[in-house]
Amino acid sequence: MKSVIRFLKVAIVLSGATLAILHFIPGTNFPKILSYLVTMVLPFGIDFLRFIGLKMSKRIEIAYLLFLVAAMVVGIDLDLYKLVAPYDKIVHTLSGVLTAFGARELLDQASGKPDQLWFKVLFSMGFVALVAVLWECYEFSYDQITGGHMQELITPGLEDTMYDIIVALIGGIIGTVLAFPPTKRHKQ
């Protein structure tokens, strides 16, 4: 698993670096330098969590890196969001699923394994909502700072933002149900 993680990190960073270099070559059309730089930093998000004392499983780390390939490299940097209309909603839905599993790992680590299913579900969905909102804040800030159009890929502004958050929450519900299956111990 370590070699897969290392390969994915290198591939993501190299794709961001390549696109960043192409940005400066006259005649090429790679205008999103800030996105390329962010692409080069995001693969180290799990490492940052480890640095501050939080641990994530290798499975979550691989899922996170694959998500970065889909969302950042293919979706934003290579413009698949503009070419395939439902791609944006699919990626936001997957973000909810991945976030729910990440929430489970953080919750298990932070507080043992609480017996209250309602608390697990509330925490998971709150975590999904937080990440979805933070991502939309990133998209908004990116557009404002760079003059980009991340929030106008399918529909303009607020409508795109709200659909993104809603489908992330739907993905979060799916991920939460899968991450916290009811057991006899949970029944109250």
Distance between the termini: 38 Å
Given as residue ranges, the uncertain stretches (5+ residues, pLDDT < 50) are none
Following the backbone from N to C, one meets helices and strands in this order, namely HHHHHHHH
Shape: globular
Total domain units: 2
Q: Would you tell me the overall average pLDDT?
A: 85
Radius of gyration: 18 Å
**What structural class do the secondary elements suggest?**
mainly alpha
Describe the structure.
The chain is an all-alpha fold and 188 residues long. The chain has two domains: 1-63; 79-188, no CATH class. The chain has eight helices and no strands. The protein has helices at 2-23, 33-41, 45-51, 58-77, 80-83, 87-111, 117-146, 157-179. Helix 4 (58-77) runs antiparallel to helix 6 (87-111) and helix 6 packs across helix 7 (117-146). The longest helix has 30 residues, at 117-146. The N and C termini lie far apart (38 Å). 29% of the residues are buried. The mean pLDDT is 85.
Summarize the structure.
The protein is mainly alpha-helical and 188 residues long. The chain is 74% helix and 0% strand. α1 runs antiparallel to α2 (33-41).
Keywords, separated by commas or semicolons:
mainly alpha; single chain; 8 helices
Q: How are the SSEs placed, and which strands pair?
A:
Layout: H1 2-23, H2 33-41, H3 45-51, H4 58-77, H5 80-83, H6 87-111, H7 117-146, H8 157-179
Helix pairs in contact: 1-2, 1-4, 4-6, 6-7, 6-8, 7-8
